[in-house]
Amino acid sequence: MKGLFSTLCILFWSLFSLAQNETGTGSIKGTITNSENKPAASVTVRVKQTHKASLTDNEGHFTIGNIQPGIYILEVSS
User: Fold this and answer.
1) Of 14, 50, 66, 77, which is least surrounded by CB within 10 A?
2) Closest Cα partner for 58 from 45, 33, 36, 39?
3) What would the pLDDT profile of 2-20 be if each residue is shown by its tens digit?
4) What is residue 24's predicted lDDT score, i.e. its pLDDT?
5) Residue closest to 71 by CA, chosen among 47, 53, 45
6) Which positions ≥6 away from 45 have C-beta within 8 Å?
7) Gyration radius from the chain CA atoms
8) Strands ordered across the beta sheet of 61-67
């Protein structure tokens, strides 16, 4: 299972986007899939060194809002 989530973490970097709004904060959005390219539901996606996290929905989508512009490391776990 650890190998699967390591793979997901790598795949995630190619799928996320950072959208910025007029308040100077934005959101990180993405889709987590498993090694068979199927959506990974109920997976935790956490922004390291913050208290921000999100749980993926049944289609593997997640959004983490109210993020300051910058570079972040995301941690994916079941």
Assistant:
1) 14
2) 39
3) 555 555 555 554 444 444 4
4) 85
5) 47
6) 12, 30, 32, 53, 54, 55, 56, 62, 64, 74, 75, 76
7) 12
8) 17-20, 26-31, 61-67
Distances (CA, A) of 5 to 8, 27, 70: 5, 22, 24
CA distance 47 to 27: 11
| pTM for this predicted structure | 0.71
How many CB atoms within 10 Å of residue 67?
17
In contact, 64 and 30? CB cutoff 8 Å? no
State how far the Cα of 26 lies from the Cα of 39, in Å rounded to an integer. Answer: 24
